[in-house]
Amino acid sequence: MTKFWYVIDNIESYICRTLLAIFVCLLFLQVVVRTLFDFSFSWVEELSIYMFVWFVFFGASYAAKMGAHNRVTFQFKFLPPGAIKYIEAFADLFWVFFNVYFVYLSIDFIFNKMNRFQSSQTLGFHLSWVYIVLPIAFALMTFRVLQVNYKKIIKGEDMRDPDAIDLDEVRAEAAELELEKA
């Protein structure tokens, strides 16, 4: 059962990897076929665009899981470190409210306001299959924002941005390397 929960906990990563691999392969196929055979598949570009859109929304959810969304953090340099996580959690509360409202609006659009005959140009399926990513990804993003805040506030885990670079650490490592060379 633990493998199941591991997959569920990393579902955005698996979806993004799969979508990226497929749409890159499809676009590569399209380039090869156009170049070598002077022919093109009309459906490849449209499907690749839809897959890229899905990739972006699930990638945003994955970034929320990693705590890697962009934030303005300059003002935190003037605050005590203990208060920062609570201020970020308060800001994330607005993010959660926005996401929940967006989930509501997107579900309302897909099931009530969308044209029943609106379909994709070349593939022919109803566009609600493309738009369904909106409530799914924003609901998942909401869950991930709450999960990150739970880990930070309740469990006390350090959820640093994986792309953040601490210049003091880099300088210390560079100084250490210089000492080793000397």
TrEMBL record:
Its main location: membrane. This is TRAP transporter small permease protein. Keywords: Cell inner membrane, Cell membrane, Membrane, Transmembrane, Transmembrane helix, Transport. PANTHER family: 2,3-DIKETO-L-GULONATE TRAP TRANSPORTER SMALL PERMEASE PROTEIN YIAM. The lineage of its organism: Bacteria, Pseudomonadati, Pseudomonadota, Alphaproteobacteria, Rhodobacterales. Residues 24-147 form the Tripartite ATP-independent periplasmic transporters DctQ component domain. It is found in: Cell inner membrane. Part of the tripartite ATP-independent periplasmic (TRAP) transport system. It holds the Pfam family DctQ. The chain crosses the membrane at residues 14-37, 49-68, 89-107, 127-146. It is a multi-pass membrane protein. The complex comprises the extracytoplasmic solute receptor protein and the two transmembrane proteins. Signal peptide: none annotated. It comes from the Bacteria. It comes from Parasedimentitalea denitrificans. Belongs to the TRAP transporter small permease family.
